[in-house]
Protein 1
Amino acid sequence: MYFTSRPPLIAAFTLAMTLHSAVAQAESPPKEEKNSRWGLGLGIGRETSPYRSVKTDTKILPLLTFENDYARLFGPSLDVKLPSAGLVSFTLRARYSDAGYEASDAAELQGMEKRNGGLWLGARTDLRLPLANLSAEWLGDASNRSGGQQIRLEASHRSQFGSVNVMPRLAMVWQDSSYVDYYYGIRATESRVGRAAYDGTSSINTELGLRMNISLAPKHSTSVDVSHTILGSSIKDSPLVGRSGISAVRASYLYSF
């Protein structure tokens, strides 16, 4: 079933960002601009693909970050900060995803139509507790490629060891049937001998991860993030999938100013 409220979703997100930006500009004096923080750097990542015989790619990308009292940009995510209170914070989120594949990526995908990534819009809330940081995030496919939705629940804990910041995490990610069917399903027109038609259903993935941030010098920092995601049964059962889980390693260098 496709996510049918795309225009209202985009309109609501755009309106919220516009109103929040207008209020922020009206209420903040010029000196608030000093709270803006920029960063430039380089990121490198390597992640296994869930699809059969698809090679693991290494990606090297420039990194631009920005944050002030009202917005935060980091990698493929842009957050608009909403009024928050105490230990709880709320944000609107836009994120670009490069999920998907092309038929030329592997012999097992020959005859499959291309699956595209796209823009996802939604919201996130964070609860900061002494023992753990808890977060909940909902995103909907604003590009209307899959028509899907995702919900992510995460628990993490941050520890400081001198100039090294360590944060392990555990996350559960629910993806609805539209998402799973688009990226892992096989349409009747795509079925072949040895590749039967497959209708994907909703799935829950489990992610274990560890992130380390290291301060090298004033304004200079680097980070390393390693993770492993255990795929849900509806994804693992797809004839297109050849792994029970996917692993990723990402590293970055950032100069802040």
Note: The first strand starts at residue 37 and ends at 47.
Protein 2
Amino acid sequence: MEIFHNFGQIPNTMGKAIIHFDLDAFFVSCERRIDSSLNNRPVIIGGTGNRGVVTAASYEARKFGVHSAMNMKMARQLCPQAIYIRGNGHLYGKMSQEVTEILTQNLPIVEKASVDEFYADLSGMDKFFGCYKFAKELRSKIIRETGLPISFGLSINKTVSKVATGEAKPNNQINVADGCEKTFLAPLSIKKIPMVGNQTYKTFSLLGIREVGLVQKMPLERMISVFGKNGKIIWERCNGIDDSPIKPFHERKSISSERTYGKDTFDQEMINTTILAMVENLAFQLRRGNKLTSTVMVKVRYSDFQTYSKQIKIMHTSADHILIPTVKELFQKLYDRRVLVRLVGVKFGGLADGHYQIDMFEDTNKTVNLYKAMDKIRDKYGDHYVRRAATLGRGSKTIGNQGNPFDGRPPILLAHRHR
């Protein structure tokens, strides 16, 4: 089934044509692609402990009130019959890349807004194909080649297209013809407009405003007096005005990993294992993305929710044997042994393109070849297939690839000594 909005008007073929693609319940769809028994059943992905949060929920689970960022304990109360899955970051990244490659091969400019969201500029294609017809064929190609459901919205700008995609879901499409933006948006809840979060919505509710159409009738000056400079942006978006450009290159500035323990702990061995597993996984992610880090940060949150962090600048690297001692040293300077630990985290910033270079005074070809061999196996079988023995303690669970990438095969263990 398709939904086509043109409100009786013919689209202006000379205007802008911006499309927004969104993979439906993406993490759930990835899990269903490898396990069809999950189809049509409530599925919830996220931390499996009571302190965990919901990362994604299937549409079947959402009917019970479950949504992303919800406390997992609450989700279990709302939908106890759901299938709970910890998640598999490696799998989701791989399937996202499949969609990215199809889009970049078929479109001149693509912006990857997130792992499951994409924008593209189709302006001018009406002269040759017809933007809507081309978009439908491209959506069909993605579904056919990846097996993943995907929706899109097509309009003259990013805001209207994103809202249209939300209205098209699940697994459908909407075209909002040029000149029909205000008519399309008017009956929708103000919460559908990007930038309108819970607090902003509460303010609108106090003003008796819940639909976009009422904002369209408000004077711009009134919006600015209530919401400040954001009031102008919200008013423009409600009126279908958005000049945001497509940004084809999103340079990632940092990568990080955090672990919240199911129970606050003093266990030094478990904490060390957690940190080591984080560094090993993040270093692998750097090398896989041909990135080097120059800033290392460690974070600790205690049982009283006080959070502290330390960071240090280093020479650009992606080598475990350099990053692990650095992170350990930072943690020891930060850690207060008198207070229970609730969360630990590691972050690598200052990312730059590049491959790990041999240190002519310390490294040997054996070191570099070891990393290449390890990473080649991880790329083929999953993040956890090659691991240091020191990362197999209780503190390493939930770090990196959460699934079972080696299908029951035991991981290769390394007793590699760090300088």
Note: Confidence is low (pLDDT under 50) at residues 6-14, 358-364, 398-419.
Protein 3
Amino acid sequence: MLISVQALRALAAWAVVCHHFMQIFFDFHPSGPVGRFFTEKGAVGVDVFFVISGLVIYLSTVDKDIPAGRFMLNRVIRIVPAYWLYTLVMGLLVVVAQPLLPHQVVDWQSFVLSLLFIPSENPGGYGLYPTLNVGWTLNYEMLFYVLFSMVFLFQQRLRPLILAAALFAITDVLGRSGLVSRFYANDIVYEFLLGIFVGVMYRRGWISERLWLPLIAIGAALFTIDHLQPAPRIINWGLPSAVIVVACISLEPYLRNYRLLKTMGDCSYSVYLLHVLVLYAGWLVSERYGVNPYLVFAVCVPVIALGAWLSYEWIEKGLYRRMKGWLDQRRASKEAALS
């Protein structure tokens, strides 16, 4: 994996952390320009995530004929264990901390649907959010994985077009007509296609190694994001996010020796899942003991970072390797028995 992409993944995760800090501690009422930026624009970290996800999935599967079931199984064992764990912890926190978290409600139906990546109305009454609120993005990720797994049935040159057609059918036909959940009627799903296009550019050598031009492009993209509302998402935030990803790839020669950036990128998924739990715990401490929110946040940041690193090492990487090794061993045994 490109160190530059890993670094950007880490920055995107921490932008979302700051966004949710403003939400949980200040109810999105910022007191300064930095707070305003993260309140209004911190969610763009999700857009960057989606572009990177399309890029990574494309680069990891290009020129490979992978059975759809194997692709999905690999994605499931990579994504699901950590998500299920933190969804369970969030459910327990909501139960234990009531009524201190009046807007957080959990019931068995929404909890099970959350685990199955099925969009449903949150019992707290604030929309189509799972028990672990940030999991809404994973519902889109799983849709992308399911559709991507199906394109392996077709020639490689046709796969992006077929995937685009499938996303269009679900988002702009089925979603907007009400035949599937309105959750999917969101043009944010097309950002996965932007990531695939970036992957095509990278594979064909269209992204050259530079310094000043990428930095200017990043500045222009951030300026655009800061001055535009998120809708239409694919245009106003998706395209600038793709520009940022391309620019960061151009900066790879200047970043490839910074192993810490790779580690931060490795931990970004756990940062994303874990941070709301830590922030809610910090908010409870702040409310009960009157501690300054920024002081609490200063404590939350290293807790999130350390917890995410442990989560990556023990759950994401460790459990994934054990499960994948066991599955590969079973597959090899079956193939040997049939030969």
Note: Residues 3-338 form one domain.
Protein 4
Amino acid sequence: MNPRPIIGVTGSHTGGLAAWWSCRLAIGFCGGRARRITVSSPADIQSIDGLIIGGGADVSPSLYTDEPDENEAVWREFRWKNLVSAIVFAPFFLVLRLLLSTKNPRTIDQMRDTLEKELIQQALARDIPLLGICRGAQLLNVVCGGTLLRDISSMYEEVPRLRTILPRKQVQLAGGSKLAACTGTNVLLVNALHDQAIDHAGEEILVCAREESGIVQAIEHSKKTFTIGVQWHPEYLVYRRDQRALFCALVDATRKTIKEKTCKTG
């Protein structure tokens, strides 16, 4: 029998329940077990087989720039083939997020930054499969020495900016990328809930997806087995096969890692 890998899912200790339950559903569907990790409920990297760094608060600019942030003190806390599934499931995730999400999305949580930064460093050192979602992708890039755009509003002067939980934004995936391989496509429809984005890629970080405006939508580590960061929220799109595939690829990668470790120790 295939093992059920334990996937740690990070999030805010003061909210983020919609993302947590959505990730838990996606991981369970793909054969894994989700474990919630927060500042108030941390976990040792050795107690999990895979890791999801979830979305939420903005990454603190202090992690990737020496410039002062005047706002930091204030920032406290459809494709037709999928039409039927979208009609059935999309309203569920929309209502779930409305009911469980906090009202202050643009926050800075330095304690969470510290926790997740350490987890990312440990996961990279051990080559533990990792998926970064929205802020998780941004923090992954920062940990690897990259930088972020602190406000993407100016990037949409000529291209209308979408902000939606529904899959209405088209992104182009790089051919031959791990992301394209696990989703089975070079074009994805995704949602958009972010205010920051990746600017300069970190060391050994490859940009593997962009949107029409040129904003980076996904990255992956060139030297690791499975380390991918996506700017959108696939946990709210698990009714789409190409988005579920991302979670299933993560779970499959953890199974492979467990098997390899067992062979080495056995």
Note: Confidence is low (pLDDT under 50) at residues 69-81.
